[in-house]
């Protein structure tokens, strides 16, 4: 008891000087945070605010912006047929690419989980395309592969896929699916968290492998599936580079790969309608927000958190 | 058990207080250090770190907004000069630039070029970012947009260096906006049907009549394409439906125009529907290139069906047609554009391209001197020939005419057959036209891929064009 009380009077006597180091530490924290805080303010928040303002103007990059009210938004919805084609292309892409990519990632993760030797090697090997795939160069290689007279055409006589409206979108989607590395690694981590005794118990009860997958793996993995689904959906809505490179910046043929962001870029930087492009960006933000919200709502009925049933409540 | 627990707790408390003590001692030590002499250096060190960070940040922020273009390197003025065009134009331009650098050793010219579509995109981005090249090649469609946007320098301020006295006045005026000379034309061009005479001969076709012999109408042109298709199995031409330029020629042949004087659309949905029905019909017959070929057009001759050996003719401007020579070993010939049913010519002489100077260039005088050299120097003119069309400097045009070689001679002769037979050119297109040119091509994609009827696509285009021209 006495030992603990010895420093106490000293501490009370010296309270004011004790506070100072604390403030100094806070100051230091701000100094170290400043690159991030400044970056967030100047490079994210400020441009966002400006873009919101510009979306109500006719800004054309060269002349000072004039206020036009909601005209950009009404034009988008009523006078721009290509806008709707870009919306259609984007939705088709999201619906094709995301499930395929997640499915492939899950299959590969399951295969890797049961692998005894060489898992680290294969994990890296499968992850590599995700590192490479985001780059322009791989997208250009992709264009060359599926071009008229390209490798795929020569091997299978398919013709130039990138010039066929139905197939061009598939070509771009394949490039995305091939980059399944990031969700795969997350799936793998999730799979390793599932307690082995669940499978042992199921084994004892005589459950088949498929049954175990449906009744143990899927429910136990559902939070991870949900996480990947949300993340990949958000990313898919914003896809730009592969479509830009594969279609040579045009979103062709017949606007079949004219994804939302590609059309946004076209409006902003090629046609010099920055105000209109800003309006498009805000609509995209709202739509992605809404889709994410819907995913979260549905998640209540299919995502299973182990903590919900702790103590056998459910 | 209770004893044990109590002992544990005691130990815990002892441990805790021991930890407290060490922490307090440490704090005392710090306080001692902060007090007195030790304190100042510490604060100044922190200030130094903060200042260093601030400087680094400022550097990072300003790095991309520094003054552009002309910077002195080793006492030399550096000019950036960009253009679009085929490799032949690039080689000749580079040779002329080398000569310029020899004559003016204090100037270094950094050149770059690209195909038209890529160039258009890149220049728009550069200009928007305040990073336009010092000297740039411009299209008729770009002048209104860039001049009214303050991107271009008023070349009237450089009259002493850049002489325009010998230019054809009508052509020179096409580079003016609100009375100021923002760009100077580099050459005079017109559209043409480029064809492969050897293959035409093999198909048993006579070469089309030149304009002095009455030329040909759109119907006669279509019939010739049908013969080619029948005899050679290849489409006779690139599908002209995708080209706003060809549409304009067709429209003018009927006495109408792309735009009215007030910068509104000069045609209706019905007009465009008729044009696209005509070309789409030919495409369905296999007489002009299929959609997969047409969609690959990007403004370079290499990617035209004629250049790829997939068709036997193409509609293009006369100057860039020289690019086909490298691709078609047997050589090419030029025919006039088809005319209206009553023989009304649709094509016109147009300033083929312009040169302009960035308003924020660091060395306007040197930039103007480079333009003056490219357009008025005799040696440069001899090197450049007709790669950008027939020269606009009239005395140079007459001087070099007899010296013209090879394809330049062909272009000169072709333009001579049209001299005095064409209607006056339309006024400069509105600034939205540059974007509409692309929209036109993409909307026609919907027709040639059979996703829309000509009428549906025409309705879309007119809607988009009206919105574009309003803004």
UniProtKB/TrEMBL annotation, chain A:
Places the protein is found: Cell membrane
Record carries keyword Transferase: no
Membrane disposition: Multi-pass membrane protein
GO process annotations (BP): transmembrane transport
Domain of life: Bacteria
Region span, Disordered: 1-22
Cellular component annotations (GO), alphabetically ordered: plasma membrane
Transmembrane segments: 29-56, 91-112, 124-146, 166-191, 212-231, 274-296
CDD domains attached to this UniProt entry: TM_PBP2 (cd06261)
Keywords, comma-separated and alphabetical: Cell membrane, Membrane, Transmembrane, Transmembrane helix, Transport
Biased composition (Polar residues): 1-15
A Pfam family this chain is assigned to: BPD_transp_1
Domain ABC transmembrane type-1: start-end pairs: 87-295
Family of the protein in this entry: Belongs to the binding-protein-dependent transport system permease family.
Name of the protein: Sugar ABC transporter permease
Automatic annotation (TrEMBL), chain B:
Pfam families per record: SBP_bac_1
Gene3D superfamilies referenced in this protein's UniProt entry, alphabetically: Periplasmic binding protein-like II (3.40.190.10)
Chain intervals with Basic residues compositional bias: 37-46
Domain of life: Bacteria
Annotated segments matching region Disordered: 1-46, 443-471
Keywords: Membrane, Transmembrane, Transmembrane helix
Composition bias type Basic and acidic residues, residue spans: 9-36, 452-471
Segments passing through the bilayer: 47-63
InterPro entries: Bact_solute-bd_prot1 (IPR050490), SBP (IPR006059)
Designated name of the protein: Sugar ABC transporter substrate-binding protein
Phylogenetic classification of the source organism: Bacteria, Bacillati, Actinomycetota, Actinomycetes, Kitasatosporales
